[in-house]
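Example record used in the benchmark description.
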Amino acid sequence: MPFLDKQELLAKINDALNDVRPHLAVDGGNVELVDITEDWIVQIKWLGACQNCSMSIMTLRAGVEQAIKGRIPGSERRGSRLIYIEVTRQALTELIFERRSYLCVGLDAEISKLPPHLLRCEDPVLEFNKQIIDATRDLCVAYKPNLAFYEALGAQGWQTLEKTRAYIGHSHFTIADAKRGDIGNTSGLYAKAFFETLDFDAVTVAPYMGSDSVLPFLAYPGKWVILLALTSNKGSGDFQFAPQEDGQPLFIKVIEKACAWAPPEQLMFVVGATHPDAFAAVRRAAPSNFLLVPGVGAQGGDLESLSRSGLNADCGMLVNASLSILYAGNGEDFAEKARQEALAIQQQMDKLLDLCQFSTS
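Model output (structure tokens):
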């Protein structure tokens, strides 16, 4: 499955190198794994005859990459990077049941709310994110940075976002909460930014401009679109509940229309936890799709009630919590406090997962 920690990935790559070493040894060559960097670039060193064959290095690298792909389905090279990119629905579901959690931690740090002692760090937001990630890794299955909190910091914020994404690694599902959506060529560049440059697994997308603003994001196999359907904010009532000709609210029409654009293996919907009465209708319109559910915790959404109406056979939900975890404490023990809050949510999710029928066999 595509959620591997660094040690597991190192072991699999070493296995792949062992597959090719006999072929290299015929000409007196060898290859050695040096390391995997923070941004998941695989570093290898050519030894013996290989290091003197500059004309064939590209051929040698292609052979090694092919061996790695055989050991790790879903790995891919873009430019000089060999990255592990494909996150299938099956893999995400298996991760949920393995960790007994469908918790997504929102990484929405504000400088003004950080513990004072972190302000002495060179990059306070990055240090905060790292400690939150370290404290919650085993309790959640996804992380979701909201882009606004990084864009507001200018160039430094983008660097922080890149470093945060690299620090998460590939052991979790990663969501760029960007809420983008524009004409086709612009959406295509947004998709490239989040899926190639930043290497996120998913991005939130606004559907208001229609299919040609969404389809460029769906052109990336193994990547996910998370479409805004029914949001958790108070203003969601301004448009999203507007009745259509058949009496259905607008958010249901959005879901029904979008389901024709992509299969459930690539398309999720945002459905706010502050609308628990809507989950039954959402599940009728999209019985198989995953739902990203914000609004639990600080916004008052009730995890048990929305899970009972929103879970499907293989879970089909990622429930996001941000403020309640990030700011559970404001002292030097803030990460421990965050872990306690995340643990309480995970323990509740552990019991609720028994409502599902998923089998890993």
